[in-house]
Write a sequence for this structure.
């Protein structure tokens, strides 16, 4: 059988996965990446002797007994130094009351702590814990991790219903509503704030159950060398299989002839031809810019009219000449007084403490990172005046540091490095629409909607990444690259080969 060629747009998780599976299935793959390094939104960079990690916060299903584990092994993604099991998802700190709750995988302890925090909501707590327990176990983790919609078989939906049989009621009714629609029934304001900041207030309640179930099952982990230690082994696997990557290669147009994708044109005017094209890039740029909107059907148009994207974030990182061995790696602070960012108040911030691996900082030192939701339009407009943009970054970094100082006295004098990444930074290096840190907002409607990887009227073209798998996340992106090659093989008359060989 002839060796067919495939061009892949983007060297993020989905693009690298697609490249690895393409090479393994007898295709010659060439990945074209806008940035100077792989990873996409699973980003990292060095500053002043510190490693700043801006992407993968935790890994799901990292143990060999997980149905997700083979996905990682296929693409060589599990780092050689292993992973660090998460016994707690993080710590919730309510500054106005000085109350603290550790989100632990010990569900009995978590229930006690939440009832102590909000005794008047004991019934709600019991309801939450029942939902978490119902969603525990490997059968639940693999839901949605089968074939792409184009290859779905009539029995697939029945298999999904069977896997969900003991927890089906948690995927309908009030548990399939956004958390923010569930919390008005919560009487205690602290518990309400806890639930709304645990992940995102727009996700369905069952998503929170699933997250805590994974924690309770020991299936959440940290990466001791961050995104860098996860992505570079994937790039190495792709190259070892004979794949080619070009960096600083921004795709401007996808070339179409007679209803077939036949190649791409780069921003520098050069053209690359191939038998097929896989876009693992931002879907809006793919559909409306690279393809000039010619293949946007009513379904895609409706998504862009009605679905929301995950908010962009402002990320402030500090290199601190001090260790924090006892601090949880992830914290949510409900602030005593809101921060003023992008002309609006910010009531809660996420604080990451990179104390679980030596790769992030020199001995005796630590990277601390504060993340908060912000606004794309504000930062995109401000960036047009670089002096004002830089001054605002500096102002916010000082304000954030003052909040850390209140909890960690003396930290201000120990800061050796400061880095501020805005939504414009995210867009500049990833071209992700409106600087979003993920893709579609994982709302109940989006999470329950299968998205096809192909476009009507366009042959030899496939899409991968979080834009075709609402909810995003590491395993789904890796799976989407695999699925794109499954479709490619089907259309080429080849039998898809998975596994590690």
């Amino acid at each position: 059988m002839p060796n067919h060629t495939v061009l892949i747009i983007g060297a993020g998780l989905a693009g690298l996965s697609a490249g690895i599976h393409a090479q393994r299935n007898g295709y010659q793959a060439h990945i074209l990446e806008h940035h100077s390094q792989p990873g996409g939104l699973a980003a990292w960079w060095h500053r002043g002797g510190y490693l700043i990690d801006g992407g993968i916060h935790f890994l799901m299903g990292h143990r060999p007994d997980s149905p997700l584990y083979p996905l990682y092994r296929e693409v060589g993604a599990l780092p050689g130094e292993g992973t660090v099991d998460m016994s707690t998802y993080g710590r919730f700190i309510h500054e106005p009351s000085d109350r603290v709750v550790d989100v632990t995988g010990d569900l009995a302890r978590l229930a006690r702590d939440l009832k102590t925090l909000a005794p008047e909501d004991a019934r709600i707590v019991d309801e939450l814990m029942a939902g978490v327990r119902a969603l525990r176990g490997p059968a639940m983790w693999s839901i949605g991790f089968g074939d792409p919609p184009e290859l779905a078989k009539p029995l697939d939906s029945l298999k999904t219903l069977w896997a969900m049989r003991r927890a089906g009621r948690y995927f309908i009714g009030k548990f399939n509503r956004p958390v923010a629609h569930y919390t008005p029934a919560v009487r205690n304001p602290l518990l309400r704030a806890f639930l709304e900041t645990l992940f995102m207030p727009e996700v369905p309640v069952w998503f929170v159950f699933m997250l805590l179930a994974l924690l309770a099952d020991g299936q959440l982990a940290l990466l001791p060398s961050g995104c860098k230690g996860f992505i570079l082994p994937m790039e190495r696997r792709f190259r070892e299989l004979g794949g080619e990557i070009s960096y600083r290669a921004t795709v401007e147009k996808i070339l179409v002839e007679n209803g077939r994708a036949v190649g791409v044109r780069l921003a520098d005017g050069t053209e690359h031809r191939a038998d097929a094209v896989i876009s693992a890039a931002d879907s809006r740029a793919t559909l409306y810019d690279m393809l000039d909107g010619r293949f946007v059907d009513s379904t895609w148009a409706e998504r862009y009219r009605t679905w929301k994207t995950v908010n962009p974030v402002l990320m402030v990182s500090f290199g601190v000449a001090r260790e924090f061995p006892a601090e949880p790696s992830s914290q949510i602070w409900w602030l005593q007084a809101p921060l003023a960012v992008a002309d609006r108040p910010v009531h809660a911030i996420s604080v990451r403490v990179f104390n679980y691996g030596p790769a992030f900082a020199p001995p005796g030192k630590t990277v601390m990172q504060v993340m908060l939701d912000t606004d794309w339009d504000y930062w995109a407009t401000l960036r047009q005046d670089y002096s004002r943009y830089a001054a605002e970054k500096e102002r916010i970094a000082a304000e954030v540091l003052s909040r850390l100082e209140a909890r960690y006295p003396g930290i201000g004098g120990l800061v050796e490095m400061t880095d501020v990444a805005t939504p414009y930074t995210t867009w500049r290096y990833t071209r992700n629409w409106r600087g979003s840190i993920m893709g579609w907002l994982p709302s109940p409607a989006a999470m329950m909607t299968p998205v096809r990887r192909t476009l009507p009227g366009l042959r030899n073209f496939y899409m991968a990444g979080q834009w075709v798998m609402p909810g995003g996340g590491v395993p789904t992106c890796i799976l989407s690259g695999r699925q794109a090659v499954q479709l490619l093989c089907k259309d080429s008359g080849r039998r898809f080969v998975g596994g590690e060989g």
The two ends are 19 Å apart (CA to CA). The longest strand covers residues 330-341. The chain has three domains: 5-45+72-78+225-308+439-492, 87-217, 313-433.
